[in-house]
């Protein structure tokens, strides 16, 4: 990984955490020069981080006016999570029926290889992306996988933020275990149902975290 990529990712994750926790209020101006100075970086990785946050809907970039924190209501977040829950449920159901033996083994190995006793946020965030991405690919439906990945990208900062809620990482990992069990049993409808509940539970955890963080 290059220094440029590392800096851009660090800036993006820090700002995403600040925004979702309410430390940066909606409408707040984000000065690119000050941002670069804060992280001891050039303006290039700062600009790249802002572009990625804009793609996720957390930041609005306006010509000649710079960047500011976007306004996203709790109702909009709930609607996006509802759509994501249905999309991921479909992915889990189809993947159950369509994954190859190699893909099933890969998903099982990914889950077994993670240690929930060491629930570092960054490590779990990476594992979580991998778990869901393997199910997307397992659908063998390119259009659906692309749609799920696009929704996931848009909600990625918020999905990450919910892991700050007390014991959410451990509960999320246990939910994955239940989904995986149904996938390995070939029980597609059950896997889809559990995935829907998993995403809606994440939405509830996010709402609770954001309420606490902003009081």
From TrEMBL:
Please name the CDD domains in this protein's record: WHTH_GntR
Q: Which UniProt keywords apply?
A: DNA-binding, Transcription, Transcription regulation
Recorded source organism is Teichococcus vastitatis
Q: In this protein, which residues make up the domain named HTH gntR-type?
A: 5-72
Q: Which InterPro entries match?
A: GntR_C, TF_FadR/GntR_C, Tscrpt_reg_HTH_GntR, WH-like_DNA-bd_sf, WH_DNA-bd_sf
Which protein are we looking at? GntR family transcriptional regulator
* UniProt cross-references to Pfam families, sorted A to Z: FCD (PF07729), GntR (PF00392)
User: In the record, which residues are listed under signal peptide?
Assistant: none
PANTHER family per UniProt: TRANSCRIPTIONAL REGULATOR, GNTR FAMILY (PTHR43537), TRANSCRIPTIONAL REGULATORY PROTEIN (PTHR43537:SF49)
